[in-house]
Amino acid sequence: MALPKTQDLETMNVSEARKQFSDLLNRVHRDEELIVVEKSGIPMAGIVPMSVVRAAQEKEAQRQEFLQVLNTTRSGFVNVSEEEIEREIEKALAEIKQERLFARRIVAAINRISPDAFESSDEHLETTVARILTDEARQKAAGEKTLAANAS
Predict the structure, then answer these.
(1) Is 146 strand, coil or helix?
(2) Are 128 and 119 a contacting pair, CB within 8 Å?
(3) The whole model's pTM is what?
């Protein structure tokens, strides 16, 4: 919740607040003051600017949205063991690492083949990337054939 710039809290008892209520409202509205109203020395209520109320409402709405997403996500894993979830997460992370490694290799290859590729047109970059991907696929297929031939 976003508090006003001044976080000093003015404290007053109920009878003082009652007598000065209109003035308190004006001060809170105009100066964004925070006022705590006490009864028998116990804080009972706060008079705060609407900006604080709106910020609290927005934060609560975000919290509710997060909880809804969390519950929806959780409901998809009701019958899945914790171990299976961990395996799937590890698998997804491994895939992401492989994709990043592949992307780094592509960028390095592009820089070797065409150092100005990233500074030229999108069409030139796309053509260069397509050529590199095709070469990578051919090399991978050739490597797999070699492995299969050696395994025979």
Answers:
(1) helix
(2) no
(3) 0.47
Reference 40, options 9, 10, 11, 13; nearest CA is: 13
State pLDDT tens for residues 62-120: 999 999 998 888 888 888 888 998 999 999 999 999 999 998 988 887 788 777 777 77
DSSP 122-141: HHHHHHHHHHHHHHHHHHHH
> How many helices (H) does the chain have, and how many strands (E)?
5, 3
CATH number of the domain bearing residue 35:
3.40.1620.10
Nearest 10 degrees: CA dihedral of 75, 78, 80, 85?
A: 40
The burial of 30, by beta-carbon neighbours within 10 Å (0-12 exposed, 13-18 middle, 19 or more buried), is given as exposed
Domain total for the chain?
2
Q: What token pair was written down for 36? A: 């705590």
